[in-house]
């Protein structure tokens, strides 16, 4: 289906791949992993023929239809959500034009023509609208959303509609770049289950380790400019990678001991006439050796201790009779909620149910119409929103921001924590004004962790973080002594942190006094309801 051999790719003066090879066969489910900047998205561009490698072979079977979901999409015109999901405005006209062009030039037997024809057939199937609606429901859309203008919705919702279109076309090979980024928890679980039963092959980039554990059967790691294959899911890969490193390290050490022994013999006896020939043979033996390079140790999560926050009262914060509306849209009517000290609570529920609004009410950053918000003794709130740029001084450097947040912290400690959140070398001297959205998000995380509040409110804190950094954050928050209320669609993150689940839906909040698995056990009906929707 897809074969890459002896790939070499240099980008911006840096070699990403050197003699790299891998293969995807029909039905394979493969995760592509490696640190940010290793070349994962570049490899996708090579497979899609958007970039040309310096050398090497990239072969796709002529009959293979490839579907690609990028991390971000282009701007839209006046098409509706259903138009996007069926491709009849955005995708189909382009396919028709390309088919006509290839027919005029006589390229009707080319791989490009065959692939364009297969996509055209999928999008002109009489059942395409029914299939699109099924996918949209599974991804969290309501029927009333189908005729809405897509440009009126957030970028995340538009990406869901494009993902629905991809699933409608049913490509032989699906390339998904961070497909869970824009999904709420229920939609993520739906996609996870859908992909488990998908007939085609799957090649994905993801920072969600639980998603990869559930979906993939192979992992290809970009390491030392090569593509190293591992069998199994992400957890299997971590174990095998550690075993491989130990074996390589043992082989390297054994060879170094052998070289040292041969060299010592040669140095000792090369001037002794009766032993000179033996000494020379030892040196030649060293020359004939294929030297084993010292293996690079697998990157480990950075461990650091969050300072002890100020101690507060047992009742941290409470909401009584809260009425909250945006214009005519009523989000909450008579909401009551109490947050107790040291409890770690995750808010779950469909997008648009009011999870982020609830965090904002707790944080005191939105005005509600009725009710009372009562603060506990000695309360210090930290609110980590999805829009983080406003809390940074554009004239300060990354390092200055952290040191200003924790004046007692030594510079080397600050550098260590920043390094674990992917700020390395000269990155720490960048002005915050020029940071990307992801960099601003990570910097704000560091600021919270070095000067923690006793109530930490976090809205999707793992967005823009790679797996190792998510693991570092998880380890830090596990030892956090304060109270945590958070929203996340990262199941691994939720499982390790949440001691309580609050389900938010249609203005109602239901508390489950247990972790994520307890919540799933008690709410099997939620999955039945989503299954019924997708079957409709």
Secondary structure elements and pairings:
Elements (H helix, E strand, L loop, with lengths): L1 E10 L2 E11 L4 E5 L6 H8 L7 E6 L5 E4 L11 H6 L5 H13 L6 H13 L4 H11 L16 H15 L3 E5 L7 H12 L4 E5 L3 H7 L2 E6 L2 E6 L2 H36 L6 H13 L26 E12 L2 E12 L3 E5 L6 H9 L6 E6 L5 E4 L13 H8 L5 H10 L16 H14 L4 E5 L7 H12 L4 E5 L3 H7 L2 E6 L2 E5 L3 H7 L1 H12 L1
Parallel strand pairs: 3-7, 3-8, 5-6, 6-7, 12-16, 12-17, 14-15, 15-16
Antiparallel strand pairs: 1-2, 1-4, 8-9, 10-11, 10-13, 17-18
Helix pairs in contact: 3-4, 5-6, 5-18, 9-10, 12-14
Net shape: flat
- Give the mean pLDDT: 88
Q: Mind telling me the C-alpha Rg? A: 27 Å
Beta strands, count: 18
Main beta sheet: strand number and arrangement? Answer: 6 strands, mixed
Strand order of the largest sheet: 5-6-7-3-8-9
Low-confidence stretches: 528-536
Q: Structural class given helices, strands, pairing?
A: alpha/beta
**How far is the first residue's CA from the last residue's CA?**
34 Å
Percent strand:
15-25%
* Residues in helix, %: 25-40%
Number of helices: 18
Explain what the structure shows.
The protein is an alpha/beta fold and 536 residues long. Helix content is 40%, strand content 22%. It contains 18 helices and 18 strands. The chain has a 6-stranded mixed sheet with strand order 5-6-7-3-8-9, with helices on both faces. The C terminus is likely disordered.
């Amino acid at each position: 289906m897809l074969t890459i051999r002896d790939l070499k790719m240099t980008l911006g003066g840096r070699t990403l791949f050197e003699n790299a090879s891998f293969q995807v066969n029909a039905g394979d489910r493969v995760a592509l992993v490696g640190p940010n900047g290793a070349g994962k998205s570049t490899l996708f561009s090579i497979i899609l023929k958007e970039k040309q490698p310096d050398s090497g072979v990239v072969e796709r079977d002529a009959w293979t239809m490839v579907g690609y979901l990028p991390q971000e999409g282009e701007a839209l015109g006046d098409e509706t959500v259903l138009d996007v999901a069926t491709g009849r405005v955005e995708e189909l006209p382009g396919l028709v034009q390309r088919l006509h062009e290839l027919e005029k030039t006589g390229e009707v037997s080319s791989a490009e023509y065959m692939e364009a024809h297969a996509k055209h057939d999928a999008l002109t199937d009489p059942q395409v609208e029914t299939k699109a609606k099924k996918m949209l429901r599974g991804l969290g859309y309501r029927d009333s959303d189908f005729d809405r203008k897509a440009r009126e919705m957030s970028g995340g919702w538009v990406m869901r509609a494009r993902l629905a279109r991809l699933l409608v076309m049913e490509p032989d090979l699906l390339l998904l770049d961070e497909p869970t980024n824009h999904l709420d928890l229920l939609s993520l679980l739906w996609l996870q289950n859908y992909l488990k039963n998908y007939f085609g092959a799957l090649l994905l980039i993801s920072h969600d380790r639980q998603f990869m554990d559930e979906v993939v059967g192979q992992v290809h790691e970009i390491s030392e400019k090569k593509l190293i294959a591992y069998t199994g899911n992400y957890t299997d890969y971590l174990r095998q990678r550690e075993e491989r490193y130990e074996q390589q390290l043992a082989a390297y050490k054994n060879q170094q001991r052998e070289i040292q022994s041969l060299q010592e013999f040669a140095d000792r006896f090369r001037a002794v006439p009766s032993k000179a020939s033996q000494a020379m043979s030892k040196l030649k033996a060293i020359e004939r050796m294929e030297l084993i390079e010292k293996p690079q140790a697998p990157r480990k999560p950075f461990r650091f201790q969050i300072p002890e926050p100020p101690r507060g009262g047992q009742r941290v914060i409470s909401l009584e009779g809260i009425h909250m509306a945006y214009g005519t849209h009523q989000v909450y009517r008579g909401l009551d909620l109490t947050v107790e000290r040291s409890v770690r609570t995750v808010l779950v529920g469909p997008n648009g149910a009011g999870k982020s609004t609830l965090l904002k009410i707790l944080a005191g950053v939105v005005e509600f119409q009725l009710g009372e918000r009562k603060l506990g003794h000695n309360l210090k709130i930290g609110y980590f929103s999805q829009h983080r740029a406003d809390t940074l001084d554009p004239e300060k450097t990354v390092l200055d921001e952290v040191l200003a947040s924790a004046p007692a912290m030594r510079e080397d400690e600050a550098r260590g924590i920043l390094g674990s959140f992917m700020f390395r070398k000269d990155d720490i001297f960048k002005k915050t004004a020029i940071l990307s959205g992801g960099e601003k998000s990570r910097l704000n995380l560091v600021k919270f962790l070095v000067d923690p509040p006793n109530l930490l409110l976090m809205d999707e804190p793992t967005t823009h973080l790679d797996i190792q950094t998510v693991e570092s954050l998880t380890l830090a928050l596990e030892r956090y002594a304060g109270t945590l209320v958070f929203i996340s669609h990262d199941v691994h993150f939720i499982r390790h942190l949440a001691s309580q689940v609050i389900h938010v839906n249609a203005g109602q909040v239901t508390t489950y006094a247990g972790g994520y698995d307890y919540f799933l056990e008690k709410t099997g009906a939620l999955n039945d309801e989503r299954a019924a929707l997708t079957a409709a």
